[in-house]
Amino acid sequence: MSEPNTQILAYHPDHLDEIRALTLRAWDPVFPKMEKEMPAYIYNLFYPDGWQNRQIHDVEAVCRENDTEIWIAQTRGVLSGYIGLRSHIEDSMGEIYIIAVDPEYQQQGVGSALMAFAFHWMQEKGLAMAMVETGGDQGHAPSRAAYEKAGFERYPVARYFKKL
Questions:
Q1: In DSSP terms, which residues pair with 99 in a beta bridge?
Q2: Of the candidates 20, 143, 129, which has an alpha carbon nearest to the alpha carbon of residue 70?
Q3: Which of 93, 99, 110, 120 is the most exposed place for a label (fewest CB within 10 A)?
Q4: What are phi and psi of 106, to 5 degrees?
Q5: Is there a contact between 157 and 132 (Cβ–Cβ < 8 Å)?
Q6: Rounded mean pLDDT of the chain?
Q7: Rounded-to-integer distance, Cα 106 and Cα 99, Å
Q8: Which residues contact 86 (CB under 8 A, 6 or more apart)?
């Protein structure tokens, strides 16, 4: 079902508190599933102070970066999602660096609206392809399904870790 009352607007620092809160709601179901599939030493090294602190820190950093454009989705006047976009001119590639939809608005077209906006943004910049990355764990299964529904093709990547 598509949400007809969703607008995509430019990010302003006044949105940061709402983005922080949405971030925690959006990733709350992801991290417990991810933790179960990762070796404990990896999870504990990535998130020594908890996933919430790391995720908020990372999102705040992205919102401050000059090489990432942040856009927000508002549905009926409420922040319902956001997306961070990057250009990689040398590869003629646009990147969806981060995307989040409030669980209350998932499966209502907000994520699709954000991705459609991203594709248009990339085309306007003359880029030839779009890229997004996500985890291969069960916590990220909904993300993978959304990207595949949007026409992304999965590219196999292997990432290895070794405890020292």
A1: 83
A2: 20
A3: 120
A4: -70, 150
A5: no
A6: 95
A7: 12
A8: 67, 68, 69, 94, 95, 97
Q: What is the pLDDT of residues 17-41, one digit of tens each?
A: 999 999 999 999 999 999 999 999 9
* DSSP string over 137-151: SGGGHHHHHHHHHTT
For residue 3, count CB atoms less than 10 angstroms from its CB and return exposed for 0-12, middle for 13-18, buried for 19 or more. middle
Phi, psi of 99, rounded to the nearest 5 degrees: -150, 140
Element (H, E) at 74: strand 69-75
Question: DSSP character for 136?
Answer: S
What pLDDT is attached to residue 1?
A: 44
Report the C-alpha gap between 88 and 132 in whole angstroms.
12
- Concatenated DSSP letters for 81-135? EEEEEEEEGGGTEEEEEEEEE-GGGTTTTHHHHHHHHHHHHHHHTT--EEEE---
Taking the C-alpha atoms of residue 16 and residue 127, their distance in angstroms, rounded to an integer, is 29
